[in-house]
Structures are given as C-alpha cells and as structure tokens.
TrEMBL record, chain A:
Lineage top rank: taxon: Bacteria
Alphabetical GO biological process terms: phosphate ion transmembrane transport
Pfam families referenced in this protein's UniProt entry, alphabetically: ABC_tran (PF00005)
Keyword annotations from UniProtKB, A to Z: ATP-binding, Nucleotide-binding, Transport
Keyword Transport carried by entry: yes
InterPro entries noted in UniProt: AAA+_ATPase (IPR003593), ABC_transporter-like_ATP-bd (IPR003439), ABC_transporter-like_CS (IPR017871), P-loop_NTPase (IPR027417), PstB-like (IPR005670)
Lineage: Bacteria, Bacillati, Bacillota, Bacilli, Bacillales
SUPFAM superfamilies according to UniProt: P-loop containing nucleoside triphosphate hydrolases (SSF52540)
Domain ABC transporter intervals: 23-264
Assigned GO CC terms: membrane
Protein name, UniProt field: Phosphate ABC transporter ATP-binding protein, PhoT family
Organism: Domibacillus enclensis
TrEMBL record, chain B:
Topology relative to the membrane: Multi-pass membrane protein
Keyword Transcription applies: no
Spans through the membrane: 29-49, 76-103, 123-143, 149-172, 193-215, 262-287
Family: Belongs to the binding-protein-dependent transport system permease family. CysTW subfamily.
Source superkingdom: Bacteria
Name the record gives this protein: Phosphate transport system permease protein PstA
Single GO term (MF): phosphate transmembrane transporter activity
Gene Ontology CC terms, in alphabetical order: plasma membrane
Domain ABC transmembrane type-1 positions: 78-283
Amino acid sequence: MALTAVNSKKKPEMMEQEERLVYNTKNLNLWYGDHHALKNINLGIKEKDVTAIIGPSGCGKSTYIKTLNRMIDLVPGVKTNGTIEYRERDIFSKEFLVEELRTRVGMVFQKPNPFPKSIYENIAFGLKIHGIKNKQIINETVEKSLRGAALWDEVKDRIHEPAYGLSGGQQQRLCIARCLALEPDVILMDEPTSALDPVSTLKVEELIQELKERYSIIIVTHNMQQAARISDKTAFFLNGEVVEFDSTDTIFNSPADSRTDDYISGRFG
Amino acid sequence: MENTARVKSEEMVGRIDGRLMKNKVIKGIFLAATAFTTIILMVLLYRIISQGAPYLSWDFFQNFASRRPEQAGIKAAVIGTIWMMSVVIPTAAILGVGTAIYLEEYAKKSALTRWIQMNISNLAGVPSVVFGLLGLTIFVRVFGFGNTIIAAGFTMALLVLPVVIVASQEAIRAVPNELKEASFGLGATKWQTIYRVVLPYAIPGIATGSILAFSRAIGETAPLIVVGIPTFVAFLPSGYLDQFTALPMQIYNWTSRPQVEFHNLAAAGIIILLAVLILMNSVAVWIRNRFQAR
C-alpha cells in the first residue's frame, strides 16, 4: 500500500504479511485561509508502531497530527481536501462523528492540561462524558489507567487531591492516563515532552515504550534524539510536505533525501 | 570630533536630582487625588450616618410609609426591593449568561456578531432613564403589566443585562483553550465541554460581575420613576402583578419632603441601601476568593 519501506530490523516477519494501517492519508491538502499548510500528504501509519513526525517549526507537523483527530476543526478558517482514513473509514465523512473519532483516538498535548479537578476526577471525566456512572467501574478504571501511565505508585495516596499539585511530568502522565481510561486505539502526542525537564522526559519516553505494546502511537517531536530513541517509523516534514517517511533507522542512518540528511545532522532547523 | 557625539556619564549623573524631584511631585499629585476622594466620601458617610443612625430602630423596619415622620418606616420598600430583585436576578442571569455562552462558544466570528457585540457594549452605557422609557412602553403599556413588580423587574433586568453579558463573556473568554481542547480531545460534545469545563471555570467571574450589576439595579431610581412606581405604599405586595415601592423610591420620596425629619429618615434609608450594597459586594468578593483558592 502506501508504505514503501519496512522496518527490517525489528519485525522481519511482518514483511510478508499485509500491513495493517490505522491511518491512511491520501493526497491531503490543508489551508489556513490562504496559507497552504499541508501539501499533498500521503502517509500510511501502521498499527502498534510508534510513528514520529519531525521537522522544523512551521513545517506542518502539529497541523497534521491535529487533523488526525480533527482537533483542527476548532481553528477557524481551515479548509482541507483529500482524505484521511482511520481503519478504512473516512474521518471527514458525515457518517463518522467527530466525537467517536476522538473517543477512539486519544490526544496528549504540548503543555500538560489537566482539568482543575482532583486526579481521580481528571480520569473519571472521560468515562462520565460517555455516560459511565457505575462507581466501581470508574474506580477500577482510574486505578488501571494510572498504573498504565506509571503514575499509580506516586499518587495512590492522594488521588482525591487537586491535579495541579502534581509536577509537570506527573501532570503529563496524568493526561496520558486520562487518554488510557477510554481504551483508545491510537494515541496522538503533540510534542508531549517539550514543556518537561530531562528526567520527566525520560519517564514519558519509557512510558511510550510500554504503551506501544497495546496502542498505536503517533508523536510529533522537535527533538530528533527523542524520535531516534523511541520510534519505529519517522516522517520528516518540511514546508508542509512529507520529504521522507521510512523506518527510523533509515531516516537517521541513511536518509534518501539530502534535505533529511541536512536536518538530522543539524545543518538547519 | 568623535567625542562630541558621545554620551557623557557626568552629564547624566548631574540630571538625577531633577528626575528624582519629578518623581516626588508626581507621587504627591496621585496621593492628593486619593486623599481628596477619600475625604469627600468620609464627609458624605459621616453626614448620612449622623443624620440617619438615630432613626434606625425596629419600628423603622416594621412600619409602612406615613405622613407622620415618627411613624414612617421602610418596610414596604425593603420587601418591595426583595420582590423586584427576585424578578431581576433570574431574568438577567438566564438571558445574560445564555447570550454570553452563545456569543463566545457558538457564534461564528462574523461582521454580524461583531455588530451585536458592539451594540451590547454600547447598551451598557445607555442612561438608565432610557431603559425606564423602554419598560414603560413595552412592559407597562404593550404587555399591560401596569406599574407592577413584574414590569419594574423586567425593566431593571434589561438595564443590567448588558453588564451581565459583558462580564460573563470576559469570564468565559478567560477559560484556557487547553482545557477545552482536553475535553474535546476525549470525545466530549460542545455542551459537555461548556457544562463540565467552561462553566465551572467561569462561574466565579460570572457571579462576581453579575452581583455587581444586580447591586446597580437595587440602587437605580430613574427607571422606577419613569415606569411609574408609587412612592407612598402602605401595604405589602402579594404577587408579581401587585404594586410596590423600592428602597431608592422611598428615599427619593423622603428627600423631597420639606420637613427635616423626613430628610433624616431618608438618611436612615440610605444607610440600609448602603448596607445591602456592601453585603452584595462582599458576597462577590467572597465568591471570587473562594474559587481562586482552588
């Protein structure tokens, strides 16, 4: 399909099988008013992969990830054409409700954004808006999600205390736990560690490694080392175009395009 | 030649005294302005309290209006104001907060919404007498409510509505976008986001702004005069379609009497009015502090 390269080191047995895509972007164009922000994007994102999107500021990487769960709809004056298929369903079609898409596809934002509520209520929020009222289910899900985000041991004695009392890194893991509570299929992460210190960043990266066993993860990062450390596939965006999309190994060790080489070796960006 | 264009530190140091002098003078001007305002306010309060305090008695609260000052009381006005506010507060709060939510969260930013916005802001500055005329035309005459509680209450609600809308809009606009994104990102609908994220965050601001607006409705006299609210009432209303009088009307009535005793009664009425306003403003402050402590 749209994938040309296959990660040869990590999953050789996948080579023969047909690859299952969570997202398939076809000829996607996006404009902010007159500004052509995404130009003819074609990208197939594989299930249970960590896919990193890298590129300099203003290259469209954040715009792209926000399009994947249609958070971009919140920005006035955005026009798109082309299609994005999530599990072979067109996310722009009228039949695919945006609320369903965002339930199946979780998002972690650049700045940790817990609600001004308790830790418990932050995680219960997603369940409550989906009509789950059973206390026991909520309690179990809160614990499971916090464990899933490697936060349980740190907060188990104070889950009814305000989330704002947590450190930045803990808040970001709480936001990840908040996503996990809805058992998403894909987790989108928009520069999730850019506001965190190195130790917190490391914890979030370790968490991503654990999460990839169960979830497909798409992560935008301006930190190239981070992309190299955690991702299976890397897409390099430049001026709204995908310059190169390949296994992370290939992108960082033998990129096909000279612009990719210039960027990863720090000659610009 | 080069040296002439260069900055000389001796010259600059020499100017420090002059700059400090200016600093002191400016401070003095601002201090004088504050002192002047404070003194005027103190004199006003002193006059009112010294005149009115002796008249504050249990009888004053228990008695209706009377031709004889020693028997005149403020009962009808206090109860009437409470009745009127029981119309003003729900009407202005529901219409005001509803409009603010619509304009901030639903309406697309277009020339039309900008025009509406501009008109709302301008309405906040329209003299209260004009709202009185509007109330007289619409509520008293067209709807045929007469000079009753409901007519006065709706008129006052319209008067404070623009302020409630603008204050609520500002509170809603102050809700961080990140929180709304977090809610939408979990698959919440617009209403769920408004109900569970936007309103809880904005309520302190909405409440503070609205209470200040409501306290204006308690003190306004002009619209009540225009709507034709009577000043001499010796009964309590039993329903919203009854006649009534309100605190500022009673005070206005007393001040326009020739006898000094009535002027003193007016001062006593003003003390009550001020006490109500201070109480309401304290509630606003209390709400703000309570929610900010989160």
